[in-house]
Amino acid sequence: MKEKRKRKLSGIERRNTINFYLYISPWLLFFLVLTVYPMIKSLFLAFTDSGFTGDGTFVGLANFIQAFQVDALFWPAFKNTLCYVLMYVPLSLLLSFVLGWLLSRKVKFLGFWRTIFYLPYITAGVAVTILWGWIFNGSYGVLNYFLSLLGITGPNWLGDKHLALGCIVVMSLWSLGNQILIMLAGIQDIPASLYESAQIDGASTLRQVFSITLPLSTPTIYFNLVIGTITAFQLFNQPYILTDGGPVNSTLTVAMLIFRNAFEYGKMGYASCIAWCLFLVIMIVTGIIQATQKKWVFYND
Amino acid sequence: MKKKNPMSKSAAHRLEMTIIYIVLILCAIVCIFPFLWMLTTAFKSTAEAYQFPPTLIPKRWLFKNFANGLKQADFGLFTRNTVFLVLFNTVATVFSSAFVAYGFARFQAKGSKFWYTCLMATLMLPAQVTLIPQYLLYFKAHMVDTYWPLMIPSLLGGGAYNIFLFRQFFLSLPKELDEAAMIDGASSFQTFTHIMLPAVKPVSMCVGVMSLVYNWNDFYQPLIYLNSTKKFTVAIGIQFLNSSMGTTKIGQMMAVAVVMTIPVLIIFFLCQKYFVEGIKMQGIKG
């Protein structure tokens, strides 16, 4: 009897195991063949002089030496990417928190505002990027027209090496809708009883923001921070479409440098080397963010 | 509970709400204005577009821009290509991510925790690090310049994030639901298609609409994998036009941009409910 039960249990267990691997098999295939293998392979490629077909010989650290010491675009690309991350990420967090909070203040027509803020996110594609290029146009752009109304002669935004990257930051911030609405959902989850008791204590609105809303939104902010940082490090579309990295390589990003080397020059080995450098930088940065998490992220439960 | 000084409280509240509405209206203008600018530019002649100060409303509405712009490249073909890819990927993504998520949510096996950790870790993996070997794999399989590299990921799990969303929802369903079906003699696959999939319809809709929009807008993957013009999607078709004629015919360019943005807007307005639901789900993290 006991034996039988044990066998039956292991029968269920076996069926569970078979089912589990059966159902996850599509993803498992993707994970092993198109994620794990490529990761190892690209690390391997980084030490070879592989060309367009991926065949090449081992060249030791030559690619890394090329990147760090010879390639005049390597450091500028990292610098630009880092500058973009440092401008975009904090501003996106600030803006999404402020707007998410405003929307949480029981405003009328919430659905309407939500739609308006979400539209730029949903339509953010090539068409809208080209549109922004036209808005930023130095001679005929509408932005400079508005500035001229204030008596300011606007610069040639995307043609100025000090301003071009900033324009791309503005463009990216414009399609922030998703983050704003994630923040809004996070803020709306905060129990109303907390605000009520703060009101009884006579706390001002601003005080409530800093002592209730902000600390209780930190998990959402943390989520947006991590995802936003990883995404920002891979900036590609806008500079590729609008400036092709110019002027004077001021908007050349690491992702563009990888793309150029891999798909325009056919240097798969060298491009993999840059890709791994980017990967390491992203890992270090997200590692630092994760390490500080305990200090500032407030978990209610 | 009574307010000490209702008069000043309500006055302060009114002031606060006024400021909030002013900020919201300003932000809404910033959000909407570029679209209006795209629309008016689409109707302008080249001469009028290149005027400074620009006209906010076209003096002459040039409807020709739309026909002429769309004639610059084979946008009919690009649209057909894109619609095929978008529909295929959306259906495949919903089905395969639900399928995989069902496995993660309902069957315990040795290693299931490990694989779930792997799944979540890939959420943080930058695409750049797997890009080149993936390309080489597709290249060796003679799949470059076909749609396979753009379709295979949706067939194989449809992305870690979608699997995660479905799994969360499956976990919230009572286990009795599928156990009852199994006891009645349904196979686990029948239980999945007849009981579980209908029960997670809201998630399917959210994942579906997000996938529609994502695939319509996707630029990077088609840019890498498609070479021949006749296989182009709308996104790279527009960029193709942009790089060939630049801002010389900005009116026509914007006309094309308007036409190609409209499908996304239609999907968005028809399925708004599901987009909003989708965002709320993103809020659930665990």
Keywords:
heterodimer; A: 301 residues; mainly alpha; MetI-like fold; 0% strand; B: 286 residues; 2 domains
Name the shape of chain A in a single word. Answer: globular
**SSE string of chain B, helix = H, strand = E?**
HHHHHHHHHHHHHHH
- Structural class of chain A, by secondary structure, is mainly alpha
Task: Characterize the overall form of chain B.
Answer: globular
What proportion of the residues of chain A form beta strands (DSSP E)?
Answer: under 5%
Distance between the termini of chain B: 37 Å
Instruction: Name the CATH class of the largest domain in chain B.
Output: Mainly Alpha
Low-confidence stretches of chain B: none
- Radius of gyration of chain A from CA coordinates: 25 Å
User: Cα-atom Rg of chain B, whole angstroms?
Assistant: 25 Å
CATH class of chain A: Mainly Alpha
- Helix/sheet category of chain B: mainly alpha
Structure, explained:
The complex is a heterodimer of chains A (301) and B (286). With 301 residues, chain A is an all-alpha fold. The radius of gyration of chain A is 25 Å and the shape is globular. The model of chain A has no long low-confidence stretch (mean pLDDT 91). Chain A has helices at 2-45, 62-70, 74-104, 110-122, 126-135, 142-149, 164-174, 177-188, 192-200, 205-232, 237-242, 254-264, 268-296. Chain B contains 15 helices and no strands. Chain B folds into two domains: 6-62; 73-245, Orthogonal Bundle (MetI-like fold), CATH 1.10.3720.10. The model of chain B has no long low-confidence stretch (mean pLDDT 89). At the A-B interface, α1, α3, α4, α5 and α6 of A face α1, α4, α5, α6 and α7 of B.
Brief write-up:
The complex is a heterodimer of chains A (301) and B (286). By secondary structure, chain A is mostly helical.
